[in-house]
UniProtKB/TrEMBL annotation:
Protein name as annotated: DNA-binding CsgD family transcriptional regulator
GO biological process, one term: regulation of DNA-templated transcription
Domain of life assignment: Bacteria
Coiled coil: none
Pfam name, any one: TrmB
Species of the source: Allostreptomyces psammosilenae
Keyword terms of this UniProt record: DNA-binding
HTH luxR-type domain sequence ranges: 298-351
Length: 359
């Protein structure tokens, strides 16, 4: 408990012993905690230095300081230390930026080449996210790891994440499970028939996008701090495309471009927002009111409604749900019956009203 405040384990044990005994010699503390006498003396010395105990020379014993006073004081000191560390980090960041400016090209955009450089800049970009990450997860998927899964660590630290999936990406095996998992973490997701480019924008100021179809293939360590890559949105192998062997651009030319705050990033944000308005929202996995289905049955129909709303064809839906065409048709009939609809169009309207798909 007190180790978070810089107190060692033996010292915390000695402090707890003093709280029980109220006043004790080093030998008594050693017996109470199960330490050697020398180790107990070191622990008591640490407590005295931290203000958690007071030495009584006349009795050659130690007395604990009320934790409501002593621990609160330690917390205050730790907060002050953290505040100073934050100031130091800001100063060090300025020095870092000055150094980077000397070795990196100036201007609104920087060409990146090679798998390691792209992955390193992606880690840097995501680790610096403070407000919002915008992602367009678009094909072609030239390798199993090509579709990057963004947002986990960022969401955990309060960063908003909005992701645009394509119908092709959503049709990959396991995509529904991945969308549901990310939605549970707080990601907001929508789906488009197609998107013009793969894209990441952080805080509306910096962006990363590929210059070729193969630019972002296989970046397995792209984001230890940030979200980590996946094999397509749901972790399964994606369809290969030409150029897959050129995993992250060729050594001779750039594979991606990093865009700094500029009119270019403004245009990319505007592109994302325009596509976001056109896209179909994907509903989180919540129970629907008024449903007569059990949770498993409702989830099956919700997934079907979501894929229908995304514009997937029957064959792609069956593949995504891992069911046969015959089972798909039976499930579609159940969906129409559950929603009281006579057509897919009516089913879409009722699914929106139920909250299975958002309008």
């Amino acid at each position: 408990m007190l180790q978070a405040l810089g107190i060692s384990g033996p010292a915390e044990g000695a402090y707890r012993a003093l709280l029980r005994l109220h006043s004790a010699t080093a030998a008594a503390v050693a017996r109470e905690v199960g330490l050697g006498t020398a180790a107990a003396r070191r622990a008591l010395g640490e407590l005295t230095e931290a203000g958690l105990a007071e030495y009584q020379p006349g009795r050659r014993s130690w007395q604990p300081v009320d934790p409501r006073l002593a621990v609160t004081a330690l917390v205050r000191l730790r907060r002050q230390g953290l505040a100073l560390a934050e100031l130091a980090a800001a100063r060090l960041a300025t020095e870092y930026d000055d150094g980077v400016a000397r070795i990196r090209p100036s201007g609104p955009a920087e060409a990146l080449s090679g798998r390691e450089e792209i992955a390193a800049r992606l880690r840097e970009l995501l680790a610096g996210a403070e407000k919002e990450i915008l992602v367009i997860d678009a094909p072609p998927y030239v390798a199993a790891e090509d579709s990057l899964r963004f947002g986990e660590a960022a969401l955990a630290r309060g960063v908003s994440c909005r992701t645009l999936y394509t119908a092709e990406g959503l049709a990959l095996p396991g995509a529904v499970e991945e969308v549901r998992r990310m939605a549970a973490l707080g990601e907001r997701a929508r789906v488009l028939d197609a998107a013009p480019v793969k894209l990441i924008v952080v805080d509306g100021a910096r962006a990363l996008l590929p210059l070729s179809a193969a630019s972002w293939a296989t970046l397995p360590d792209a984001a230890e701090e940030g979200p980590r890559p996946a094999a397509g949105p749901g972790g399964a192998a994606a369809p290969a495309a030409s150029g897959a062997s050129a995993a992250s651009g060729t050594p001779e030319g750039p594979g991606a471009v990093l865009v700094r705050p500029s009119r270019i990033t403004d245009a990319l944000v505007a592109l994302f927002e325009s596509l976001w308005r056109q896209a179909v929202p994907l509903s989180p996995d919540e129970p629907a009111r008024g449903s007569t289905l059990d949770s498993t049955g409702e989830r099956e129909l919700r997934d079907l409604a979501m894929l229908l709303a995304a514009g997937l064809k029957d064959e792609a839906i069956a593949r995504q749900l891992r069911i046969s065409q015959r089972t798909l048709h039976r499930r579609l009939a159940r969906l129409l019956a559950e929603l009281g609809a006579s057509s897919r169009f009516q089913a879409g309207i009722q699914a929106v009203r139920r909250g299975w798909v958002r309008d």
